[in-house]
Amino acid sequence: MKFLDKAKIWGPFWLGVLVLVAFALPQYRQGEASLAGKTPEDFTMQLNGKAMKLSDLHGKIVVLNFWASWCPPCVAETPFLNNLQGRIGSRGGMVLGVNVDEDPDAYQKFLVDHGVVFPTWRDPSVQGTVSKIAKEYGTTVYPETYVIDRKGKIARKIIGEQRWDSPEMLAYFDALLAEK
Q1: How far apart are CA 148 and CA 62, in angstroms?
Q2: Exposed site from 56, 72, 91, 146, fewest CB < 10 Å?
Q3: How far apart are CA 123 and CA 107, in angstroms?
Q4: Under 8 Å CB-to-CB from 120, ≥6 apart: which residues?
Q5: Cβ-based neighbours of 31, under 8 Å, separated by 6 or more
Q6: Is residue 156 scored above 60 in pLDDT?
Q7: Exposure of 65 in the CB half-sphere (CA atoms within 13 A)
Q8: Do the beta carbons of residue 44 and residue 53 sit within 8 Å?
Q9: Where are the alpha helices (DSSP H) in the chain?
Q10: Is the dihedral of CA 39, 45, 50, 81 positive or negative?
């Protein structure tokens, strides 16, 4: 079989594969330009009874996770976030949960029932399932997470449930925590 004959047969196949790969890339799926290097929206919150801003955490690696007690993927990833907090907490990192429950009792019950060990804050502006802060970030699906580097810039955005204590994620955080 001649090269041109093979190209006619296999060319469309490989073109199709390339198109599928392009559509599968995270940048395409998320439908937005990369947020890496951008400054995250600042907001005021209460942590441990103290008012503070996200920008007050400058110098730490922050895993900013938007979640809800009624969200099955959020429930599923909670133990992995707990494990990640245990891994990075003493090394200049922290998981920071922003809860989008309208009901404060549901939020408190979730924290107790699931043994949440990372700092969390319930956005009091939530109406139904809409959080003012999550909306400012462009978040429409829960869970959604922003990894913020020590310089206070977004390093990565992750949509959906994540296995935060996987070897790949732990290696990623080890590298991020090693940066000064």
Answers
A1: 5
A2: 72
A3: 10
A4: 96, 97, 98, 99, 107, 111
A5: none
A6: yes
A7: 29
A8: yes
A9: 3-24, 26-30, 72-88, 104-113, 132-137, 167-178
A10: negative
Q: Where are the beta strands (DSSP E) in the chain?
A: 44-47, 50-53, 61-67, 93-99, 120-122, 144-148, 154-159
Q: Which amino acid, one-letter code, is at 57?
A: L
- Residue identified by tokens 């009874």 is 49
Q: Please, which pLDDT band fits residue 30 given cuts at 50, 70 and 90?
A: very low
| CA atoms of 42 and 25, how far apart (whole Å) | 29
In the numeric block, which tokens belong to residue 5?
């004959």
Side chain identity at residue 117, one-letter code: V
pLDDT in tens, 95-118: 999 999 999 999 999 999 999 999
Token pair belonging to 159:
């949509």
